[in-house]
Amino acid sequence: MSFTFTWYGHATLGLETGGQHILVDPFFTGNPAASTTHDKVPADFILVSHGHGDHVGDAVEIAKRTGALVISNAEIAGWMSAKGVKAHGQHIGGGHQHPFGYLKLTFALHGSALPDGSNGGNPAGFLITLPSGEKIYMAQDTGLFGDMKLIGDEGIHLAVLPIGDNYTMGPDDALRAVELLRPKHVIPIHYNTFGLIAQDPQAWAARVRAQTSAVVHVMKPGESLAF
Ligand code: NI
Ligand code: MN
């Protein structure tokens, strides 16, 4: 089975597979890089990696409009449930078979306080195994960690990695992440949303091409790629 990947800008991602729409970290309102608005995006499932405002974003509004199931760590899932949204809680290392594939929450080296100061549990990344067996790793906000090698050992088709620096991995560590993960394809995210995370993605892509065998796709917000 194939899938389509959309970058909406910042760390906001869309996956379409088997007729299901999976929306990741849906930050549209207040996102200077957003390619569209929260009232226009399709969603059957919404994945929230951690509690920060640029990741929780418009998740509640979109879930209420679409009836999508929000999937996150148990603390954020509980916070979503209290707002009247359908939610499913998991924790790092735990996987669950959802209609779109098997989703495992992975370690992330970051913070996770929710916008209202509530405890957002631990931040996570996402590893999805599609019914075809293809694996997609979306690191979301994280610093570099050595266990990316273990994630890479699973055989990654597509890795989505932050390169913005300051809050997450910068270009140097993201390059080391590609070396550990050994994905077939890699897409950089979480850069150029605002000045503090300004980066040159083409310069990073050139380094990845020179030093690894990964195929790099530098996307524009709103662009989709079919895999
Ligand atoms: Ni964050
Ligand atoms: Mn972020």
In short:
This protein is of the alpha/beta class.
Commentary on this structure:
This protein is of the alpha/beta class. The chain has a single domain, classed as Ribonuclease Z/Hydroxyacylglutathione hydrolase-like (Metallo-beta-lactamase, Chain A, 4-Layer Sandwich), CATH 3.60.15.10. It has six helices and 14 strands. The strands form two sheets. Strands 6-5-4-3-2-1-14 form a seven-stranded mixed sheet, covered by helices on one side. Helix 5 packs parallel to helix 6. It starts with a strand and ends with a strand. 47% of the residues are buried. The model has no long low-confidence stretch (mean pLDDT 98). The protein binds nickel (II) ion and manganese (II) ion.
Task: Please render the helix and strand layout as text.
Blueprint: E1 4-9, E2 12-17, E3 20-24, E4 45-47, H1 53-56, H2 59-66, E5 69-73, H3 74-82, E6 87-90, E7 95-98, E8 101-107, E9 124-129, E10 135-138, H4 148-153, E11 158-162, H5 171-181, E12 185-189, H6 201-211, E13 215-216, E14 223-226
Parallel strand pairs: 3-4, 4-5, 5-6, 10-11, 11-12, 12-13
Antiparallel strand pairs: 1-2, 1-14, 2-3, 7-8, 8-9, 9-10
The structure holds nickel (II) ion and manganese (II) ion.
The site of nickel (II) ion has 6 residues, from loops.
